[in-house]
Design goal:
With 111 residues, the chain is mainly α. It has 2 domains: 42 residues, no CATH class; 46 residues. It contains 5 helices and no strands. The longest helix is centred in the last third of the chain and has 22 residues. The radius of gyration is 24 Å and the shape is elongated. It starts with 10 loop residues before the first helix and ends with a helix.
Length: 111
Amino acid sequence: MAQSAESPKRRSENRRRNMRPHVRMTEEEYAHLKQQASNAGMTKQALIRALVAGSKLREIHQIPPALYRDISGIGTNLNQLARKANAGAPVAKAELEELLKAFERLLKCLS
């Protein structure tokens, strides 16, 4: 069955990345590539493309689960206060002070 001009092309026909360079490296170099990709939170392929494009890499720092929960809780509280304020409801000074204290505790943990 022939494709009409309006029918979408198959994924393989739309792909722009169709070049597959083959690179030989030592076990140590390969291990380093895997570690760098992991540190940047990228796949090995994405890391190589970023480096070729001249991007600077940033390492992803693992956040302890307890700290992640605290940050999430602060964000939730801030969002609730913002919704309340945007709805025209008064925001209690105690709520703002509690949120500020949570931010201060977070900053102590991060420094």
